[in-house]
Automatic annotation (TrEMBL):
Residues the entry annotates as binding heme: H48
Keywords, comma-separated and alphabetical: Heme, Iron, Metal-binding, Transport
Record protein name field: Hemoglobin
Superkingdom per UniProt: Bacteria
SUPFAM superfamilies assigned: Globin-like
GO MF: heme binding; metal ion binding; oxygen binding
Any single Pfam family the record assigns to this protein: Bac_globin
Renumbered residue ranges of the record's region Disordered: 127-148
Length: 148
């Protein structure tokens, strides 16, 4: 039986993630509920989210090497006080974009959606006033079987 491609290769690698995230933030910045949260959006934002997702889904571990790893990622959300409505809209828009930009494969779309649900809940939780980041451990990995 031929070997199954890695999750990262199956989703199309960094190019696919770049198309996905670029298109996603184009919509986020037009969304009445989310645009105010991203008032200080910078051109590096898309790039850094792509680097993060690349590592999570099994590509090169560049976020850990260059951008502060898991703790660095969480600290970007500190103090944002993300509401459940904002979290849910962010996730909904990303999944709708993934349905268009990532391969149709049902398991791939499902695992991606599970990661987004998990990750957005953590982002919301660490964004609340007074939340402690602690030591979140290494950058999470996610693949065909869910969390690795
Ligand atoms: C899986 C979930 C998420 C991931 C992987 C993620 C990823 C990231 C990354 C990599 C950055 C740093 C960007 C940079 O270096 O310029 C960032 C910043 C940010 N994220 Fe998220 N994010 C997630 C969820 C959310 C949610 C749900 C919201 C709000 C609805 C949000 C709002 C923001 C904002 C406002 C910033 C910029 C903060 C600043 O000014 O530094 N994020 N995010």
């Amino acid at each position: 039986m031929p070997e199954q491609p890695s999750f990262y290769d199956a989703l199309g690698g960094a190019d696919a993630l770049h198309r996905l995230i670029d298109s996603f933030y184009g919509q986020v910045l037009q969304d009445p509920l989310l645009a105010p949260v991203f008032a200080h959006f910078t051109p590096t934002h898309v790039e850094h989210v792509v680097v993060w997702l690349t590592e999570v889904f099994g590509g090169p571990a560049e976020y850990t090497k260059r951008l502060g790893g898991h703790h660095g990622l969480l600290s970007h959300h500190a103090g944002l006080a993300i509401t459940e409505e904002q979290r849910a809209r962010w996730a909904e828009l990303l999944l709708a974009t993934a349905a268009k930009e990532l391969p149709e494969d049902a398991l791939l779309q499902q695992r991606f959606a599970e990661y987004v649900e998990w990750g957005t809940r953590i982002a919301k939780s660490v964004s609340q006033p007074g939340a402690e980041l602690g030591d979140p451990g290494p950058t999470p990995r996610w693949g065909w079987n869910g969390p690795a």
